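From the thread on structure requests for the teaching lab: each student submitted one protein with a one-line request. Submission from student K.M.:

"Model histidine kinase from Leeuwenhoekiella parthenopeia, tokens only."
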Amino acid sequence: MIYKSYIAGLLLRVLLLLAALTGIAWGIVNTSLLFSLIGGGITLIILYDLYRYLIRRFVAIDDFFEAVKYRDFSRWFSEKHGPQDLRNLHRGFNNVNKTIKAINNERQAQFVYLQKILEMVEVGIIAYNLDTGEVLWVNESLLNTLDLPTFKNIGFVEKRRPQLYTELFDTYRTEAVSVNLSLRNEQLKVLISETVFQLEEDAFKLVVLQNIENTLNQNESDAWKKLLSVMTHEIMNSIAPISSLAETLQNHIQNNQQNAELHPLELDDLNAGISSIKKRSEGLMKFAKTYRSLSKVTHLNLETVKVNELFKSISDLMQPSLADKPVALHFKTENPEMAFEIDSYLIEQVLINLILNAIDATQEVEKPKIVVTSSQNSKGRVQIKVRDNGGGIPEEIRESIFIPFFSTKKTGSGIGLSLSKQIMTLHKGKIQLKSDAERGTEFTLQF
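Reply posted by the TA:
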């Protein structure tokens, strides 16, 4: 539409110019000075009008490109004044500006979401440019742990604390390691892990630091390594498609700016891309909320509870879930009067989670059965076992099932068993696993 009206106006002016030139030629052939002068005057007027007609469009295009060059997408081109083709051109410029602003707003929203997620993580995180040292992002946890003010370049740390700079930024590690840092005239034991990633033409380094002083033994250190791996994987899995999709949309717009005929701007595609970015950002927020729930359990409300009362409560809770399933759930106890001191709400949560996992594990079994038993070990301490006759847990993932966010279920959050382990640790107990492809799986809660 823009080009049709533009070409029509241009063709009309060219025809008028040819007519004026024909008049000049006729006047010269017939030696009519007056006719030649009139034709010459009209020719000059038409040439001037043609020049204005052409230059006005090029000025508008140049203004738009200048705005793109300086990323000024707030520029608004008038859609109510001037020739129709120029108004259509302005309308196209405004649509492009609106689309780019929307994409920029979405990208900014993703960045804000990611910032909030990283602020919720109780580990120190810093990402910086490997070439310039410019800090891409750093969270408060790292600054508080290292007792540093906010800084924009890691050169600040190099000048102020050379030894800390060497340990944190000048040493490359292929795996997570425990390091002793000298801070505030004392030694602080931290777990440091790092990775290098590429964004466009720049290389960045991500360093994750966890304060494990007086709280982390070697087994827990291994767990933190796995936790870091899962967290990095989840976050980068969310960032990568968002960045890739934003780049694709940007290239589409740039191609349209260069040649609108070959690369028309499809607003439906742009809208679909933006919707995809929004959906993935909601996934990031869900991930953050999941991590948050994992860190909420910090204290217990202890009370003396009889085992048979605990089992009855869980049986009542599970009946609706088992009403339409062929699973047989049995509770057995050596001594109905057996009692122990627990937080009944949290232990119910653990047992329900284990039973639900057992139900999922026995879906392919002909006669699914789950047995929950209680007994006392040789030291007189209570232990509860949840056993199923399912297919068992594959050996290659048994060490990973207690890692936060690790899940083999499509809809699982990956915090059930991790949360159960945390609850048992708060009870000064532990949770153990035995699994076999033929005999099924057995979880033991030892108090």
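TA comment: The first helix runs from residue 2 to 29. Residues 2-103 form one domain.
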